[in-house]
Amino acid sequence: MKAGMFDMRFLDTLPASILLVDDDPIVIQVLGKALAELGRLRFAMNGEQALNLCRQSVPDLVLLDAEMPGMSGFEVLQTMKADPALAHVPVVFVTSHSQQAMEERGLALGAVDFIAKPIRPAIVVARARTQLRLKQAIDRLQRLASTDGLTGVANRRILDEALDREWRRSRRGGHPLSLLMLDIDHFKLYNDSCGHLMGDRCLVAVAQSLQGCARRPSDLVARYGGEEFAVLLPDTDAAGAQYLAGQVLERLHALAIEHPATVSKVVSASVGVATVDADSPGWGQPSSEEEIAEIAGMSRGSLRMLAVADQALYQAKLTGRNQAVFRRVDLTIPLPDVLTTRVRALT
Ligand SMILES: Nc1nc2c(ncn2[C@@H]2O[C@H](COP(=O)(O)OP(=O)(O)OP(=O)(O)O)[C@@H](O)[C@H]2O)c(=O)[nH]1
């Protein structure tokens, strides 16, 4: 799947991935036989192996022996909870200890259930199935909350979060960061002349085209609203961002989506590009408290980046459309001045 693409509807139809962890091969065999009908099984005989398998491919469910030589199940669970990529994976403890203290400890660490040995296959299957159904429902809700229903790309909430995170990472680590804002030209006319259904199809095509351009795993394509899209490009400097903006326009032109109401007769877009990198005035200075402070849940830095990309987009519209305009973020300009620039340009 391409980077940033959140359309994972087909994943619901994939078999679940279950990891069985136990140092006793007999237990693994019994569990494996019982759970084979529920999905694709993998096995680990110790904690390190279990964590390696989890990191290679994140499972939907882990059945974990609490007591193993070396790393215990409790330690495995603690490590998983500390890793953002694994923290959400449901873990069911399987142990020969039925003492309440063990159960309490496992549940307190974040295990979702507790199964005591000797194993009764029907109970294990029923409990595993319940956890897999829950996980599937949560995954589906999370997808709904993070994707744009029409185009399948990330929604604005996800963009805001990613921009905020990447801005802080950029300022802390001295990595360049770029943001593209794209707005389809004369889209109202397109809707008026071709109909809203075709308008929707056009939005889907543009989203897919953007996905084709932004292919790094950390790139993020999002629908910003209406006929406006954003592409977040971590670790991308001015030259990279301008190259990508050119690719975006070229690809869109190559799609040749007919637009009967414009002179060019094909759908085009305007792009605003904002980059913060080593050539940005104020780059070397440590990020101030002021910059990290939040307005309406977003850091001031994210707002600065959005505002600069928006100004560049506005300029691209004003000066003819079907083009990309680049602006480098100037960290020395006070944020209130940045936020009001477009207003001033209008008046
Ligand atoms: N079909 C469809 N249209 C949408 C959707 N969201 C927003 N629009 C339309 O997008 C159009 C945006 O129009 P404007 O903001 O005037 O911009 P424009 O016509 O593209 O003009 P410029 O941006 O100046 O080139 C409006 O007609 C909206 O109704 C959507 O999900 N589907």
Automatic annotation (TrEMBL):
It comes from the Bacteria. SUPFAM superfamilies: CheY-like, Nucleotide cyclase. Residues 175-329 form the GGDEF domain. InterPro entries: CheY-like_superfamily, Diguanylate_Cyclase, GGDEF_dom, Nucleotide_cyclase, Rev_trsase/Diguanyl_cyclase, Sig_transdc_resp-reg_receiver. Residues 17-132 form the Response regulatory domain. GO terms for biological process: cell adhesion involved in single-species biofilm formation; negative regulation of bacterial-type flagellum-dependent cell motility; phosphorelay signal transduction system. This is diguanylate cyclase. One of its GO terms (cellular component) is plasma membrane. Keywords: Phosphoprotein. The modification 4-aspartylphosphate is found at D65. PROSITE patterns: GGDEF, RESPONSE_REGULATORY. Its EC number is 2.7.7.65. The keyword Phosphoprotein applies. GO terms for molecular function: diguanylate cyclase activity. Pfam families: GGDEF, Response_reg. The keyword Phosphoprotein applies. It catalyses: 2 GTP = 3',3'-c-di-GMP + 2 diphosphate.
